[in-house]
């Protein structure tokens, strides 16, 4: 999946490679999703084809309706029963995001499936929130409702009627605009929510709460009288965090050295982790994007201005971060960035490839192995510092990586990384890579002063590196950014920001004393249990969906 086309590939605990939107859900709700929470057209069609090949349709003609639409509904109901918040039993409400734009041919089967679903489960069991843009004409400042009117008309023509409108705009909707939308879209004015520009993203939940969005949802789902659900939102933590962010003025500059710097979404989780850590350290984050290719010697000849600008940004940074990546383009520039950070005692964090190139740099310039390299970039190198992982395949791009949550054991108790994690003996972090540090060269590296502070349970996979006499030089084979949360920032990112802002000694002391948020991560695959939705008399489904879920007040539709 190309980061330029899809943005970041987000990795889940179970190894699922999913859309970056699932990362937003994990961060905001502090939950752990599974690969099945990500529904794609390919997954649905594959499941239907597999069933047809097994003879489950008894030779019938397989069609979009009902087979594809039924498969979508079955998937939704099955996954909705899997707890993702660490608690037992299914959730009270399942959120389904149907992406794209009304009218897109790609989403037609999903819209039809949800239309059938809403009719089958009946009122009180289905709430449709339609997100739409209300543009503002800068010349006169008028808010235009026509795009929303047309999209709602198109949605209703496809069998779905919105209960709530979430209107994205640069400023708050005027009352007259809300009345107009209510009249033309047949949505109560109280159910028209404005999502206007705010100072930081953590104000969005506060914005929704102020407009009683939660009450509107509870009312549509007939849950406003259920005491265990209809509680006042506890947003004190969000209020405090949003206020802190707006008052930050002392900056910390981090140079992000990568190859996909043209699209910031390519490193979305890294950016969010930096943001979480900077707020934790009470610093205003400034990210300087440095294209790794612009640091290379060839650029000095071909584009001297870009070369000079990139090196000035690198030299002006308080800390340097080299994120993960694939392919050999820009690798030499990343190696130069790691070399600069090591020699100039600049705080450095290398993630995945960022750790591997730091090892290569160390071999070249400290251990004098001038031809040291990764076999990913030079298969014939005489000093293979980084080698292909044993269980992968060199020929197939998909499903060959070491993916998902893996355990890393700390081998050196007094290292910075262990202290940042609260002096624990091990951590569980998410991986996404094919190549790793050559274990046969580890004794030579350790003799030269490079510490491998974290390893897997076999001791053969190098998970974390540190240079002990450096302010902060840390590399991680895993991706710590994927588990960073606003209330629980990733320890390695906190270390980088703290070191870059002169606070590392205090932070390490605090964490050694236990002054750090401890989260118990519980991953449950759940169990499928029957659910009865109380809004009338139960009716058993008759459309072939045999997942043990019944919808009171629903309509049994014969397939």
From TrEMBL:
Name the catalysed reactions. UTP + L-glutamine + ATP + H2O = CTP + L-glutamate + ADP + phosphate + 2 H(+)
Which ranges carry the CTP synthase N-terminal domain? 1-223
Q: Which UniProt keywords apply?
A: ATP-binding, Glutamine amidotransferase, Ligase, Nucleotide-binding, Pyrimidine biosynthesis
Q: In which pathway does it act?
A: Pyrimidine metabolism; CTP biosynthesis via de novo pathway; CTP from UDP: step 2/2
For the keyword ATP-binding, the answer is yes
Q: Which residues form the Glutamine amidotransferase domain?
A: 264-497
Q: Which SUPFAM superfamilies match?
A: Class I glutamine amidotransferase-like, P-loop containing nucleoside triphosphate hydrolases
Per its UniProt record, what Pfam families does this chain match? CTP_synth_N, GATase
Which EC number(s) does the record attach to this protein? 6.3.4.2
Does the record's keyword annotation contain Nucleotide-binding? yes
Instruction: Read off the InterPro entries from this record.
Output: Class_I_gatase-like (IPR029062), CTP_synthase (IPR004468), CTP_synthase_N (IPR017456), GATASE (IPR017926), GATase1_CTP_Synthase (IPR033828), P-loop_NTPase (IPR027417)
| Task of the protein | Catalyzes the ATP-dependent amination of UTP to CTP with either L-glutamine or ammonia as the source of nitrogen.
Protein family according to the UniProt entry: Belongs to the CTP synthase family.
Q: What is this protein called?
A: CTP synthase
The species this protein was found in:
Zea mays (Maize)
